[in-house]
Specification:
Layout (H helix, E strand, L loop, with lengths): L4 E9 L4 H4 L5 H9 L1 E6 L8 H10 L3 H4 L17 H9 L3 E5 L2 H4 L13 E4 L7 H20 L7 E6 L1 H9 L3 H22 L7 E8 L15 H4 E7 L13 H10 L21 E4 L9 H11 L5 H5 L6 H8 L4 H19 L6 H11 L3 E4 L4 H8 L9 E3 L12 H10 L6 E5 L2 H9 L3 E4 L12 E3 L8 H6 L3
Parallel strand pairs: 1-5, 1-6, 3-4, 3-5, 8-9, 8-11, 9-10, 11-12, 12-13
Antiparallel strand pairs: 2-7, 6-7
Length: 486
């Protein structure tokens, strides 16, 4: 990972209708969206369109069935099992976190609260009354306090949550008219002050900031919410930061907490049972197939199979993609596999030594990983002599680990080679991105729990969960890499 400090700011603006937002001049949100995105977030069918359930989902990364917050009275919740991201990071990881808010259930132990149980430090400012004017004053004081913390050069806070509630209260009291639109514009101006505070940090140039701005629900025209109309159940999320571009899938509130963890390089423990998924995450390591992925040897392998076993149909030949010589021999000639395996190995090694070339985009991808401080490993179904020969055009020193056939109990399509590479690097396989060109290799990587970027060579590969399919490595950039397999 890069030595730069990673930090996250989440700003929650309560009750902002997406259709209203898109009509208004909101320069700070617009700039954020221009750097990343602003997309609709639909409140799912099981979640009431109320602040308590929606903010709980955004803060914990799990939905109502797990966190148990069904209304604005949080009584009966399961937040001890599924804590908010600020508490989880502070208590479990010892990271400094900060929360500033004026809505009581978020901060105080009344009516089942607080939602944010134990951040490292917090600011709570109660509005003097439930009126638009009082909430504007509350948001102003929250913004001032949060800006001081965010700008403090001595502060080492990793993740912050700042809540602004005036737009929601204005809609409740006055409906979704001109006053409501003015409250949204003022919230955008306060967002701008928070972002200016971040940029004013003396260490800002050496930090990588992810900024997420989210609303919990919309409003009916008259100002209420809690029903299932499109205006009430359509929320939104804006995001910018390292590797963040337009998301490839619809996003939900649970993805907010998941992205906070990912932006900080914190791979969730499986026992957290998060429902959300990040939309951009730097892999902790990239585990790359060699033949057909980095080096153009797959054509040499298929030619070798045809020459060693003439008369095979195309389907049988393609079944050899991604497999070791021994597995291919057992598959194609089960009566005399050893003889065929030896012939395949000798022919293929000779071809690789004479003809192997680097595939387009491979050196640039490895340069990107090196620049980001992300370790790279080779995970191959070829034997060690073939791997060493194929690596010569690339440079074996680019890889911290290489795994070849015969160096694990089983080879692809079993998970063993990928598990061995992750173990050697000291990383969780689920936090790794595997890059593969064959269905056999994809099967192995997914069996190990890796995210997958598939760059098919000869046999087709379909997209799937935690699997992205791309035509080759040429032109891949950080945003594509960060989003692959999520």
């Amino acid at each position: 990972m890069s030595a730069a400090a990673h930090r996250v700011l989440v700003v929650g603006i309560d009750g902002v209708r997406l259709d209203t937002l898109t009509r208004l001049p909101t320069p700070h949100l617009d700039a954020l969206a221009g750097d990343g995105f602003l997309v609709p977030v639909e409140v799912d069918a099981d979640t009431p369109t109320l602040s308590g359930p929606c903010w709980a989902t955004a803060a914990t990364g799990v939905t109502v069935a797990r966190h148990g917050v069904w209304s604005n009275d949080l009584t009966g919740h399961r937040l001890g099992v599924f804590p908010d991201f600020a508490t989880r990071l502070a208590v479990q990881d010892g990271r400094r976190t900060f929360v500033a808010a004026g809505w009581q259930p978020l901060m105080q132990a009344r009516d089942g609260g607080p939602l944010f149980a134990a951040p490292s430090h917090s600011v709570y400012v109660s509005p003097a009354a439930d009126t638009p004017e009082a909430w504007e004053e509350c948001d102003e004081r929250i913004t001032e306090a949060a800006a001081r913390v965010l700008a403090d050069a001595r502060d080492d806070t990793a993740a912050s949550f700042v809540y602004l509630g005036a737009p929601d209260e204005t809609a409740h009291v006055l409906g979704c008219g001109a006053e409501y639109e003015a409250a949204i514009r003022r919230a955008d101006a306060r967002l701008g002050r928070l972002l200016a505070a971040v940029r004013s940090r003396p260490s800002y140039a050496d930090e990588r900031w992810t900024v997420l701005v989210v609303t919990d629900h919309g409003h009916a025209d008259a100002g209420g919410h809690g029903s299932r109309t499109p205006e009430e159940r359509t929320a939104w999320l804006a995001a910018s930061g390292p590797g963040i571009g337009p998301p490839a899938r619809p996003l939900g509130h649970a993805d907010v907490a998941a992205q906070v963890f990912a932006a900080l390089g914190r791979h969730p423990d499986r026992h957290w049972a998060l429902d959300g998924r990040p939309f951009a995450a730097a892999p902790h390591a990239v585990l790359l197939d060699l033949d057909g992925t980095l080096v153009d040897t797959e054509s040499l392998w298929l030619r070798t199979v045809r020459e060693a076993a003439p008369g095979l149909g195309a389907d049988d030949i393609y079944r050899a993609l991604g497999r070791s010589a021994a597995d291919t021999a057992a598959l194609l000639d089960p009566e005399r596999p050893q003889r065929l395996a030896e012939e395949l190995e000798a022919r293929f090694l000779a071809a690789v030594e004479l003809e192997a070339t680097v595939l387009p985009g491979a050196p640039e991808l490895l340069d990107l990983l090196s620049g980001e401080g992300i370790p790279a490993a080779v995970v191959s179904a070829s034997t060690r002599p073939v791997v060493d020969a194929a690596l010569k055009p690339l440079g074996a020193d680019r890889f911290r680990v290489t795994v070849a056939a015969g160096e694990t109990s089983r080879t692809k399509p079993a998970a063993d080679p990928y598990l061995a590479a992750a173990r050697a690097l000291g990383v969780d396989p689920a936090a790794c991105l595997a890059v593969e060109d064959s269905p056999t290799g994809v099967t192995a990587a997914e069996a190990a729990g890796c995210r997958v970027l598939a760059v098919p060579s000869y046999a087709g590969i379909e997209p799937g969960p935690r699997r992205t399919v791309r035509r080759g490595l040429a032109g891949i950039d950080r945003r594509e890499l960060w989003a692959a397999g999520l």
